[in-house]
Amino acid sequence: MAPMPPSRLQQTGAHILARGASPAGSRPPSSAGSAAGGRHSPASSASSPNLAQYEYPPAPPSASRTGRLYREDSCPQLDPFGRTAENLPGIKSVKMKRVAGRTEALPQCVWSDSVQHLGEDPWPAHAVPLFVFYGADRPRPAYREEVKFLVKEDKYVNFGLRLRCGGGDRYMGGSVGLVHSPDRREACPGQDGQLVTITDIIVNPDNTIIVHAVGDLPFRVQRAWMPRGLRGLQCAIVEVEPAAPRLETILDTCDQESGLRRFGRLLRAAAPAAAARLADPGEKFTVFVPTTNALNAALGGLRDEDLVGRPDVEAVLVAHIVPGRVACEALYNGRALTAIDGSSLIVSFKTWPRGDPRVNDLLVEHMDVMCANGVIHTIDGLLTPNPAPAGRGRR
Length: 395
Known about the structure:
- It contains ten helices and 14 strands.
- The strands form two sheets. A seven-stranded mixed β-sheet has the order 9-8-14-13-12-11-10.
- It is an alpha+beta fold.
């Protein structure tokens, strides 16, 4: 008795393809033909269509070549794109808001803190993801300054969700690099940027995120690439500056900031004695510096040369200087400060608990500009000198 043919359930995969002793393109007999001893009835073949083509689909082209999913003659080799990528989806409209310091004097931990033990040894190259900005309003926080900004672009939102879910090098965040590219080209070797440490990410219902970050050290790109799985987000090996930026004195800080430059010039020209005290690194001061726009509006177009030698101008400038370093953490609603000329300054917060800070009803725009011999708080107007204890400032 002839052995029974193997069941069709056993003729799967390679067993079906291995029955290739028949000519190429042939198909195994149908189940009806197999049950009849492998012979097809002429009547049934003439009256019914050939069902083998539906029961056995054609074999793939790579069946005879294991591990080959394409033909060399039909699929040319793909060459990688070696030029600089253009028209990258970047971040344009960013409304950065400086965050006031916290009540608790807790240091904001940044990435550069983890390599302080190296001392004079060269710092390691650090691979970081890059956030590319091509608009004028981009976040530029100072060293250890806390800021927050809104992100709407999909690839940055998706990466922010990864950081929030533990994909970074710290809890709910991590280190990223901020790069400015006006022509929307990818970051190239030699381009400068700034490290920031993301401390918190808030997801909005409209699929946008609010990023809270702390400014870190500047860097320079050594090598950049776009890894798979990040939807075009760029990563880079960066070279970080070997040390934190050195703090300058109050007058030197005013000279370096365009929004505070005129106050420093006026102080040197109209109040040389007060300027000499602010240049001394041994003393500590808190200065409420009017911005350049506020000075221009209050002085009515007068030049600096026209204000030299006027006692009233000197009195106004000196009223903005308070002895001692008083940071944002030490300010509270109703606290009274005394300037070096005896003028009384009252700090208030219009929104509970510490929102909308003001001094003598003048809005404080930027708090805690740290200096080597004190701290600067910028205001949007001029304080009125009044040595009386009940003196109040006005615009």
